[in-house]
């Protein structure tokens, strides 16, 4: 089946994240005589653009090639050098990423230290532009926005899972906020797993009945109904990518396409056929001539809006 991509951060509520670049971007240009031995006070991500870097972190040797990123945690000693015949070029950026106030989001995750920034043909021009456009002594809003795209690509590639009971270490309302976000992320990442909602409930560091109520209060659905919503979101992607209703039903785990259509309408508010009709109308611009209520009424009645 077509791979449906999603971001680990997709389920983070708007406004909950705070990204800060703590110094201007470092434009790495290193020869074979270069070496470094230091520790930083904040997170440091390195992105290789040319050549190859070698690093020793906590006794582990890591290599960084073009298209790869290396994340170094705060207060972690690392050594770096290059054995590359060509100059080793790249980016180093110091930053913090907080969630729900002053809680370190990356510290809640299990991440591979080195990961590919995929798709690199898309990310490479952005990475070069980020490097070339970085002011030498300041931080700008465009730099921060571009860096968030690169960081998000790293997190998606490096993410192994949430640290067990990480939210339990956070006191007060922020702890339950983080736990709900983690559970929503787990569910949305595996909506076809029949046990994922129950697993997410069991892994939360709270009483299951209490956590289910708090989850529903914040998300608007119980974990099981949220799983069904994520399942239907995946079905929407499949329909939009050209799969028919029967094939889509099978790909999201329904043997009966008619039952799938009923569940899709119950969850998303329109049938698969009505959704496809909306997509068709949107592509040729005909939905622009009607407000949302009028669009829904016409499509529900089986009437195709005209261009007027």
Could you explain the architecture of this structure?
Strand 9 and strand 10 form a beta hairpin. The two termini are 39 Å apart. The strands form three sheets. Strands 1, 2, 4, 7, 9, 10 and 12 form a seven-stranded antiparallel β-sheet that branches. Strands 3-8-5-6 form a four-stranded antiparallel β-sheet, with no helix packed on it. The protein is α+β, with helices and mostly antiparallel strands. The chain folds into two domains: 8-162, Jelly Rolls (Sandwich); 164-269, Arc Repressor Mutant, subunit A. Helix 6 (223-240) packs across helix 8 (257-268). Helices cover 41% and strands 21% of the residues. It is globular. The protein contains ten helices and 13 strands.
CATH architecture of the largest domain: Sandwich
Largest sheet composition: 7 strands, antiparallel
**CATH class categorisation of the largest domain:** Mainly Beta
The CATH homologous superfamily of the largest domain is named Jelly Rolls
Structural class: alpha+beta
Could you spell the SSE succession in H and E letters? EEEEEEEEEEEEHHEHHHHHHHH
Mean pLDDT: 88
Number of strands: 13
The total tally of domains equals: 2
> So what's the overall shape?
globular
Total count of helical runs of at least 4 residues: 10
The CATH topology annotation of the largest domain reads as Jelly Rolls
C-alpha Rg (nearest Å): 23 Å
Uncertain segments: none
**Straight-line N-to-C gap:** 39 Å
Please indicate the percent range of residues in DSSP E strands (runs of 2 or more): 15-25%
Helical proportion? 40-55%
């Amino acid at each position: 089946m077509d791979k449906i991509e999603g971001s680990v951060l997709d389920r983070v509520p708007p406004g909950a994240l705070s990204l800060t670049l703590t110094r201007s971007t470092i434009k790495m240009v290193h020869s074979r005589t270069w070496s470094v031995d230091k520790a930083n006070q904040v997170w440091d991500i390195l992105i290789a653009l040319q050549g190859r870097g070698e690093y020793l972190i906590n006794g582990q040797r890591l290599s960084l090639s073009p298209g790869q990123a290396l994340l170094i945690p705060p207060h972690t000693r690392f050594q770096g050098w290059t054995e590359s015949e060509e100059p080793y070029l790249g980016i180093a950026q110091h930053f913090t990423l907080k969630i729900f106030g002053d809680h370190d989001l990356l510290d809640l995750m299990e991440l591979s230290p080195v990961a590919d920034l995929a798709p690199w043909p898309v990310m490479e021009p952005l990475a070069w532009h980020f490097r070339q456009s970085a002011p030498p002594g300041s931080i700008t809003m465009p730099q921060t926005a571009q860096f968030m795209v690169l960081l998000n690509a790293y997190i998606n590639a490096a993410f192994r899972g949430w640290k067990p009971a990480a939210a339990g270490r956070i006191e007060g309302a922020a702890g339950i906020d983080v736990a709900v976000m983690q559970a929503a992320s787990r569910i949305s990442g595996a909506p076809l797993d029949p046990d994922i909602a129950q697993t997410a409930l069991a892994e939360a560091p709270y009483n299951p009945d209490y956590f289910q109520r708090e989850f529903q209060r914040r998300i608007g659905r119980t974990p099981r109904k949220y799983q069904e919503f994520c399942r239907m979101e995946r079905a929407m992607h499949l329909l939009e990518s050209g799969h028919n209703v029967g094939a889509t039903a099978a790909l999201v785990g329904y043997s009966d396409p008619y039952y799938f259509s009923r569940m899709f309408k119950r969850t998303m508010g329109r049938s698969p056929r009505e959704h496809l009709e909306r997509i068709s109308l949107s592509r040729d611009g005909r939905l622009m001539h009607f407000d949302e209520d009028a669009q829904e009424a016409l499509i529900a009645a089986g009437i195709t809006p005209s261009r007027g």
